[in-house]
Amino acid sequence: MKISFSDIINTCKELLINPEAFWKTKSGEKVDHFQLLTTFLIPILLTVSVAVFLGEFFRSSHFYIGFALLKSTRVIVLFLLQYFIGVFFTNELMKTFGAEKNIDVSRILVVYSMTPLLLVSIVTGLFQFLYVIDILGIYSFYLFWVGANELLEFPKNKKSSYTLITIIVNFFVFSFLSITLSKLLTAYY
Predict the structure, then answer these.
(1) Are 167 and 89 a contacting pair, CB within 8 Å?
(2) Which of 11, 42, 63, 83 is the most exposed place for a label (fewest CB within 10 A)?
(3) Contact, 111 vs 38, CB < 8 A?
C-alpha cells in the first residue's frame, strides 16, 4: 500500500470543488477501512499535527518543545476520536430513521466530510493568528449533507431529518472533545 500525496491532493480538490460528482463516484465504490485510514485520513492528520507542532513551537518565545508536542498530540487524539465516534453515531442513527445500517457508507461520509476541517487546521496550526478562518470548516457540514443525500436511502421525508440530526450530533461531539482535550492539556501544562 503506497501513500501518494498527489492522490490525496487530487481527492481533496475533487471533493471541495465538485462534491456532487465526488459523492457519485463513491456511491458504488467499495473502500477498505484500513486503506481509507492509512492512505487518506492519517497522512492528512499527521500533516495537521506537524503544522500545529511547528506553529506552537515557533510561537513560543522560549521554544517549549513539550507544550508543542502535547498540543500536536491533542490534535491527533481529537480528530481520531471524532472519526470513530462520528462513524458510530452516523451508523447508529440510520436505524433510528428507518434505513439499514451501513458502516462502510458511514466511514466514507465521516472521513471525507472532515476534510475541510482538517485542511483549515493545517493553516491555523501554522499561523495561529488566523483562527478566524476556522469558520471555513463549516463546509464540512455541506459535504456531509450532499454525501448523505447521494449515498443513503431513507424512507420518504426522513433523509433531511437524519442528515440534520447527524450533523448536530457530530458537531456537539467535536465541540465536547475539543473542550475536554483543551482542558486536559491546560491542566497538565
Answers:
(1) no
(2) 63
(3) no
In which element (H, E) is residue 175 found? helix 159-188
Output the CA torsion 49→51→54→56 (10° steps).
-80
Q: What is the pLDDT of residues 150-174, one digit of tens each?
A: 988 888 788 889 999 999 999 999 9
pLDDT of residue 63: 67
Locate 152 and state its grid cell.
443513503
Residue at grid coordinates 433523509: 159
Per-residue pLDDT tens for 5-32?
889 999 999 999 999 999 999 887 777 8
C-alpha angle 136/18/135, rounded to 5°? 5
**What distance in Å separates the CA atoms of residue 30 and residue 62, rounded to the nearest whole number?**
49
DSSP string, 47-113: HHHHHHHHHHHHHSTT--HHHHHHHHHHHHHHHHHHHHHHHHHHHHHHHHTT----HHHHHHHHHHH
